[in-house]
Amino acid sequence: MVHSAAIHHPNVHRRSGGELLPLATRVMWALITAAALVTLGFTFYPEWSRLASMKSDLAAQQERLADLKKKNAEHEQEVKLLQTDPQYLEIIARDKLDMMKDGETIFRLGSAQPRP
Questions:
Q1: Per residue in 58-83, is it b (16+ CB within 10 Å) or e — as a string?
Q2: Does this model's pTM top 0.70?
Q3: pLDDT of 37-70, one tens digit each?
Q4: What is the pLDDT of residues 2-16, one digit of tens each?
Q5: Alpha-carbon distance 3 to 91, whole Å?
Q6: SS (H, E, C) the chain
Q7: Cα distance between residue 96 and residue 25, in whole Å
Q8: How far is CA 25 from CA 21, 28, 39, in A?
């Protein structure tokens, strides 16, 4: 008759010293891991912050670039008109110099401020 308490397997060993050593080992590994994570955090946080700041600056600069490209296209169109369209050139020159043809009456609507 075989009792379950009397069964001894060759690959099964009892731990001596209780659970104190494995608990200390787990605590030590947890502390090492926490220290490594804190070190990595302090090392890389400034870089992550700088990267976020640079991304924000890049987005603002790209928006400014788009606005400048739009204004540039408008100015190029005006230059083209000034170079190729004599009627447009006459209108702009008369408007800037406040000149009018004989018998012509000019009505200005909008601000009452004198033009420089």
A1: eeeeeeeeeeeeeeeeeeeeeeeeee
A2: no
A3: 999 988 888 898 999 999 999 999 999 999 999 9
A4: 455 545 555 655 555
A5: 115
A6: CCCHHHCCCCCCCCCCCCCHHHHHHHHHHHHHHHHHHHHHHHHHHHHHHHHHHHHHHHHHHHHHHHHHHHHHHHHHHHHHHHHHCHHHHHHHHHHHHCCCCCCCCCCCCCCCCCCC
A7: 86
A8: 6, 5, 21
> Is the distance from CB of 106 to CB of 100 less than 8 angstroms?
yes
Average pLDDT over residues 16-29: 78
| Residue-level pLDDT at 13 | 55
Q: What tokens does 70 get?
A: 């739009």
Task: With beta carbons less than 8 A apart as the criterion, state whether 40 and 33 touch.
Answer: no
Q: Do the Cβ atoms of 82 and 88 come closer than 8 Å?
A: yes
Task: Give percent of the chain above pLDDT 90.
Answer: 42
- Per the structure block, which two tokens stand in for 31? 């502390």
